[in-house]
Amino acid sequence: MSESSLAQGRLGAWGIVFFVVSAAAPLTVIATTPFSVRVGGIGAPGAYLAAGVVLTLFAIGFTAMTRYVRNAGAFYAYASRGLGRDAGNGVAVMTACCYGVMVTGFYGFIGFYAQLEVQRLLGFDLPWWVAGLGCAVLVGVLGYRQVDVGAKVLAVLLTAEVVVLVIFAVAVLVQQRPEPLTVAPLAPSHVFASGAGALFVIGFGSYIGFEGTAIYVEEAKRPERTIPRATYAAIAFLSVFYAFCAWVLVQAWGVTGMLEGAHREGEFYGEMLFVAAEDYAGRGLASSMSLLVVTSFLAAAVAFHNACARYLFAMGRTGLLPARFARTHPRMRSPYVASVTITVVVLAGILVGVLAGADPLQFAFWTYAPGVFGVVAAQAVGALSVLAFFTRDRRGHSPWRVQVAPGLAALGLGVGLYLIGTNFDLISGRTGWVNWLMLLFTPVTFALGVARGRLAAEAGAPAQR
Fold it and tell me: 3-state class of 220 per DSSP?
């Protein structure tokens, strides 16, 4: 096997699902539902479903193209085949950089919540960066090893998240609630109400990572079947689970109570899931949930670290980066050079944050926010790439699958990107010119990719497959 070849046949559909669903961090998404209600109204659960519909349309064309693109670069390869080499190179660098800053941001979240948990459980103040650095090293070790090792770790962490949320849901539904059950949070009149556009900032952001199924195409068993199954399973699970759990959380408080709590002064909205969990299922479940928030971000870091490593690997193989990035470990068959590089960059980023005196949440949001915008932009380009690829030749597919669905997905993702850009302060936590600076991260990295690709082409680098 070539030293630039990943381990083939290591991942089944469920292994890939664990990677991409863990990247979405379901527990943390549900914990932010009251914030969604605060900024966009009671239709938050329905917004998760609506975003899921758009991404299902995306998946219809995305999976059709999978059989023609077998490359760990995913959007890199899709854009190259559909829109041309410049677009592919731009998307490659943009997506890799966005994944990289998001991974870095997760360690800020890990540090913040770990600090709270250590104080609660052990009574002493743990510097946030100690937990951040420690988890970054742990994730680096997992990224260095075989891909199925990371999948097994994510399976355990994700299962724990799902179990506590299901226990909470059952506890709420079988007990007396402040108001009768209502479908109001799912009603289109609330989901698409005036001023509810902010809901879709959270809605689309909550699915970040699902597109990672195609990243593992070279390591999947029977990829022509595994990748579509994993993609549809991930979207179906996330959309239904998000909507159901968010709906249950609204039922736990009642519509009136949820609106009042979400708009209470201070940051009570951030505690509403845990308060409800303690009220309905006891302190033990609430404590487990708060602890699992830390592991939820850890799981997301593992997933995005692996995704970023495979983008760097793909770029090394085509000359967009030095060839050493395309090396795989002789025994592990992992992209170890790319993985170690990401770990070093992330550790350096955390240290810069510490030396700059940034608090963990400030550090997290400043790195996470531009990543979210860039990845949704990459999804939109991916939909356009599918549309362009099949416009010339449908290759036996129906117009619905390779033209209508991708076209609608591109439109929906374009609207989502606009809403994220115009409501960027909701995910950055900042106002003013700083937001514009963070938004520029996406076009600047895209332009750098185009420029670097042209230099590589002049040097005789191979085209993306």
Answer: strand
The pLDDT tens digits of the residues spanning 325-345 come to: 988 887 877 889 999 999 999
Question: At a CB cut-off of 8 Å and minimum separation 6, what does 180 contact?
Answer: none
Does residue 248 fall inside a structural domain? Answer: yes
Residue 196: phi and psi, rounded to 5, are: -90, 0
**Does 437 reside within a domain?**
no
Kindly state the tokens that stand for 127.
């510097």
pTM score = 0.90
Domain membership of residue 109 (yes or no) is: yes
Domain CATH for 161 = 1.20.1740.10
Within 10 angstroms of residue 160's Cβ, the number of other Cβ atoms is 17
In terms of residue numbers, what domain contains 52? 13-419
> Hey, is 11 helix, strand or coil?
strand
* Rounded CA separation 392/410 (Å): 18
Give the contacts of 360 (CB within 8 A, at least 6 positions apart).
108, 109, 111, 112, 115, 128, 129, 132
DSSP 197-211: THHHHHHHHTTTTGG
Q: Residue 203 has which token pair? A: 């809605």
- Asked, for residue 146, whether it belongs to a domain, the answer is yes
The Cα 418–Cα 69 span in angstroms is 29
Residue 39: predicted pLDDT: 86
Cβ within 8 Å of residue 91, ≥6 positions away: 75, 76, 79, 378, 381, 382, 446, 449
What are phi and psi for residue 220, nearest 5 degrees? Answer: -90, 150
**93 contacts 320 by C-beta, under 8 angstroms:** yes
Amino acid identity of 190? Answer: H
For the chain, how many structural domains are there in total?
1
